[in-house]
Amino acid sequence: MSLRKPPPPRLLLDQVSCMRNAQQILRNVNVSIHDGSALVLSGSNGSGKTTFLRMLAGFSRPSAGRILWNGHDITESGVFHQYKLQLNWLSLKDAIKENFTIIDNVQWFELLEGKHGKSMPAIELMGLGRLAKEKAKMLSMGQRKRLQLARLLAIDRPIWLLDEPSVALDDDGVKLLEYIIAEHRRKGGIVIVATHIPIDIEDSMILRLPPRFPRRITLVDMLDRCDIS
Ligand SMILES: Nc1ncnc2c1ncn2[C@@H]1O[C@H](COP(=O)(O)OP(=O)(O)OP(=O)(O)O)[C@@H](O)[C@H]1O
């Protein structure tokens, strides 16, 4: 019998609640996330998936509870400085420079990381090798998503926060996405993904957020709805 203690979670959400626009979006969420694991956030439009990711990225604070990274509260400034360097954020806003080439769009981020040499292999893996010297403005939506994923690989940070990563990808693109997620986890990385479209992520934890209810009707709403003619 082994008496070795299990490792503490890399990320721990402890009774986390979150408000947005004066509405309660998340209530008392508890999740332990270990190296190599994946958390999938699902739920209808407006249920709070992006809000959840934004909170993990430190763009907003929990209204109650704590998010701990290596046992430290990420809202403490000394901790946040280190924590944010662990994050790789992919969102629908793609931050692609239209007049830069595809390779420059990736290398620019890699350079900011003080890294070198991963951009071209990442671009090739994502199937954009032949387009590397083209301007980004000529890319299709799916190719832009592939470019974002290449950037994710080139930057190579341990915690991936992915907001609808499969949107606009074709079947092969989704398979590549599933592959790079599996590889990242195999190396001990963490993946937290908000998605409507089913993605094949082995042994993932699933957090289904309940649908939002419309907020209470105010006097202004009622006046707006009055048909005064
Ligand atoms: N910029 C904002 N300011 C205030 N409230 C917002 C803002 N963006 C979203 N919300 C509100 O927060 C709630 C959760 O939105 P969120 O974007 O997190 O949902 P989601 O599950 O990611 O939705 P979708 O599936 O449509 O992407 C919604 O009720 C929405 O109206």
Automatic annotation (TrEMBL):
<protein>
    <recommendedName>
        <fullName>ABC transporter domain-containing protein</fullName>
    </recommendedName>
</protein>
<keyword id="KW-0547">Nucleotide-binding</keyword>
<dbReference type="InterPro" id="IPR003439">
    <property type="entry name" value="ABC_transporter-like_ATP-bd"/>
</dbReference>
<keyword id="KW-0472">Membrane</keyword>
<keyword id="KW-1278">Translocase</keyword>
<dbReference type="InterPro" id="IPR005895">
    <property type="entry name" value="ABC_transptr_haem_export_CcmA"/>
</dbReference>
<keyword id="KW-0813">Transport</keyword>
<dbReference type="GO" id="GO:0016887">
    <property type="term" value="F:ATP hydrolysis activity"/>
</dbReference>
<dbReference type="GO" id="GO:0022857">
    <property type="term" value="F:transmembrane transporter activity"/>
</dbReference>
<feature type="domain" description="ABC transporter">
    <location>
        <begin position="11"/>
        <end position="219"/>
    </location>
</feature>
<dbReference type="GO" id="GO:1903607">
    <property type="term" value="P:cytochrome c biosynthetic process"/>
</dbReference>
<dbReference type="Pfam" id="PF00005">
    <property type="entry name" value="ABC_tran"/>
</dbReference>
<dbReference type="GO" id="GO:0005524">
    <property type="term" value="F:ATP binding"/>
</dbReference>
<keyword id="KW-0201">Cytochrome c-type biogenesis</keyword>
<dbReference type="InterPro" id="IPR003593">
    <property type="entry name" value="AAA+_ATPase"/>
</dbReference>
<dbReference type="GO" id="GO:0017004">
    <property type="term" value="P:cytochrome complex assembly"/>
</dbReference>
<keyword id="KW-0067">ATP-binding</keyword>
<dbReference type="InterPro" id="IPR027417">
    <property type="entry name" value="P-loop_NTPase"/>
</dbReference>
